Amino acid sequence: MTNVISVAEKLFKGAPPPKQLLKIKGSHNSAFLDSGEVFLSGIREFLKSADTGVQ
What are the sequence ranges of the domains in the chain? Predict the structure, then answer.
């Protein structure tokens, strides 16, 4: 099985800015619960940057 984090990091490295990589823990269905505040903070920052156009 491919390591999901290593794939995400490769994609992140090749993506143009602005960009942000949010590393969370948990499965597809439970990551928002398992990662708690890290997940919520990442969503807040994404929405804030999308609203202002600035990261």
Answer: 23-55
